Amino acid sequence: AQKVTQTQTSISVMEKTTVTMDCVYETQDSSYFLFWYKQTASGEIVFLIRQDSYKKENATVGHYSLNFQKPKSSIGLIITATQIEDSAVYFCAMRTSSSFSKLVFGQGTSLSVVP
Amino acid sequence: EAAVTQSPRNKVTVTGGNVTLSCRQTNSHNYMYWYRQDTGHGLRLIHYSYGAGNLQIGDVPDGYKATRTTQEDFFLLLELASPSQTSLYFCASSVAGTTSAETLYFGSGTRLTVL
């Protein structure tokens, strides 16, 4: 069975600093995809960034990047130069080749960026 | 941009009540999903479908029925609502299930309260 775990319930950082949110996953599949989603204060959930298990390079989109450590089954989300509007709940999720129609989510991490 | 519309936005019912949550997507996506969001649990999959007339069981299906009447419309049914089903419900869709790389597009959510 697939499982995604986010142990950080909430994080608070100063504006313009860098933050890392942790996520570990469990799967028996050799091929899988890892996603990060952002839920804003309004409740809207949007896709941020994806890492393919077969790629060694860490994915980067804008000021979001990933720290993919495959031997540790870990996929951290790094936000650099944080802004107030980055305050949100961030979800890690996984989809595997044997269960490609299902996206399994972690518990979420609430990020607060303060001035 | 994918569009997923949920209705109603808020719903209050009593224990034992009958509730239907509606979801419509207008982008010809094959897959549609119903998730519930609860503090400490993140997003959990209730049911999903890969086309009209199809229904697949998710991870937390007990107490829920669902029906996909057309490619656009997916309904979640609570025939005997219980307080444990008080939650924030999200509908989502994705282009195809044949590749694990596809991301999900979410609706705005329905907040259900069962008294």
Protein traits:
heterodimer, A: 115 residues, mainly beta, 6-stranded mixed beta sheet, 4-stranded antiparallel beta sheet, 12 strands, globular, B: 115 residues, 7-stranded mixed beta sheet, 50% strand
Summarize the structure.
Chain A is mainly β and 115 residues long. Chain A is built from no helices and twelve strands. In chain A, strand 5 and strand 6 form a beta hairpin.
What does this structure look like?
The complex is a heterodimer of chains A (115) and B (115). The model of chain A has no long low-confidence stretch (mean pLDDT 94). With 115 residues, chain A is an all-beta fold. Chain A contains no helices and twelve strands. The relative contact order of chain A is 0.35. In chain A, the strands form three sheets. In chain A, strands 2, 5, 6, 10, 11 and 12 form a six-stranded mixed β-sheet that branches. In chain A, strands 3-9-8-7 form a four-stranded antiparallel β-sheet, with no helix packed on it. In chain A, strands 1-4 form a two-stranded antiparallel ribbon. Chain B is mostly beta strands. Chain B has no helices and eleven strands. Chain B has strands at 4-7, 10-13, 19-25, 31-38, 42-49, 56-57, 65-68, 73-78, 87-94, 105-106, 110-114. In chain B, strands 2, 4, 5, 6, 9, 10 and 11 form a seven-stranded mixed β-sheet that branches. In chain B, a hairpin with a 6-residue loop joins β5 and β6. The mean pLDDT of chain B is 92.
Question: Which helices and strands, and how do they pair?
Answer:
The complex is a heterodimer of chains A (about 120) and B (about 120).
Chain A: E1 3-5, E2 10-14, E3 19-21, E4 24-26, E5 32-39, E6 45-52, E7 60-61, E8 64-69, E9 74-79, E10 88-96, E11 104-105, E12 109-114
Parallel strand pairs in A: 2-12
Antiparallel strand pairs in A: 1-4, 3-9, 5-6, 5-10, 7-8, 8-9, 10-11, 10-12
Chain B: E1 4-7, E2 10-13, E3 19-25, E4 31-38, E5 42-49, E6 56-57, E7 65-68, E8 73-78, E9 87-94, E10 105-106, E11 110-114
Parallel strand pairs in B: 2-11
Antiparallel strand pairs in B: 1-3, 3-8, 4-5, 4-9, 5-6, 7-8, 9-10, 9-11
